[in-house]
Amino acid sequence: MSETPTDQLWQLSASEASRRLADRQISSVDLTESCLDRIAEVDDRISAYITVTADLARQQAADADRRIAAGEATPLTGLPMQIKDLLCTNGVATTCASRMLAEYVPVYDATAVSRLREQGAVLLGKGNMDEFGMGSSTENSAFFPTRNPWDTARVPGGSSGGSAAAVAAGAAPFALGTDTGGSIRQPASFCGVTGLKPTYGRVSRYGLVAYASSLDQVGPIARDAADCALILQAIAGHDPRDATSLPDPVPDYPAALTGDIKGLRLGVPSEYFAEGMDSGVRAAVTAAIEQLADLGAEIREVSLPTTEYALAGYYIIAPSECSANLARYDGVKYGYSYQDDGPGDVDMWEAMERTRQHGFGPEVKRRIMLGAFALSSGYYDAYYHKAQQVRTLIRQDFARVFEEVDALAAPVSPVTAFPIGDRTDDPVRMYLVDVYTLPVNMAGLPAMSIPCGFVRSNTDQGLPVGLQLIGPHLSEGRLLNIAHTYQQATAWHQQRPEI
Predict the structure, then answer these.
(1) Among 64, 237, 268, 308, which is 20 to 30 Å from 378 by CA?
(2) One of 13, 114, 136, 159 is an active-site residue; which one?
(3) Which residue in 15, 47, 136, 183 is the catalytic one?
(4) Element (H, E) at 164
């Protein structure tokens, strides 16, 4: 590969940068400086970062170079990264893109963050997001919306929109996002990058500010499957501080990238190609599945009949858990307090009510109210209990299908990135964007999004489309190999927005 100028090192993928750092062809200081320069160049147009930690990044990069020189490096030593702003970072503000936590500075790292730091990764800053992870467009941030690098008049997806936009624009080689109902895969699809949602419990949730505890999962967003394998290798594994963390040993994910999928049984669920899907999305996903067949996969049509109930079930379970998790923000223990604004003439109960009124944004309040209603006396059995029964049926659907096939291929979203403001006044229309990603979270399965084409738009570049790969529990290595094999044969993941 030709030598990359120092000021263009931001163009390197995480895997390529890791190789060059290990070979001492580049330094972490130069790589980090190039990424910081890139952030300064583009972030005023995309707003992918809430906080940029330039001084910390330079210090960590210098430490990384010393580790590399001393022969103490790991594959992630010296690699710059962005972290979604709901993962706790010791000494660095963790706002959840909410006024409620605008000045919260944790005194500890989330486990996923600490594992990356221990390996010598360099923190560039914290990524913008939908407030507390509640949204599909990163328009619900209390600070500013993030814009899609492919068309800055459009959304990057959500809730990890800042992370996907940063990777797409070259403002970070990789990022950590979280996925509760599609929040890694959908923005990865909209921004033309690769995103992996691991099996529930594969990556520790300790230090993740909870939205819906039975659905949230931490995962990587990067340029390609090889990058995601590298990052997952570092963050996966049991954590005694997380009661839902799985004890299963962590396989060698990079070694799983054999580039061979001959004989793989790949299911295509008919319910994921429903009426209302954008014709360009359908064409791109269909072409990608045909490409996988050409690479040796055996394609079978399968059925997941409970798919149509996943959206309704999710929007009972997730808001119910959110209403419980966010009850802690009362203006007393920590975070924003209405009384700090100086009214002084309200009692405790009114102060608590006004704290939540002014501290939370509209979407968060909407979901808290939905959840409180679903859990209320007289409605619990009719709504929450029934939704959990639906969840069981969805899990059984997937289990049955995975007796017949090794993995599933489907669209990530029925649409491409939509204009900013296009769906903010119609919550149901917004929620429907995640109709193909929600079932995976309900079942706790691993899934990923890989770029598979473009749909024509009012820009010359077009808008990216993502192919979703879904596997049975703990099949991340298999999914990564399918994605890697596809990416070895195609160039969609190598396309970059002109920003």
Answers:
(1) 308
(2) 159
(3) 183
(4) helix 161-169
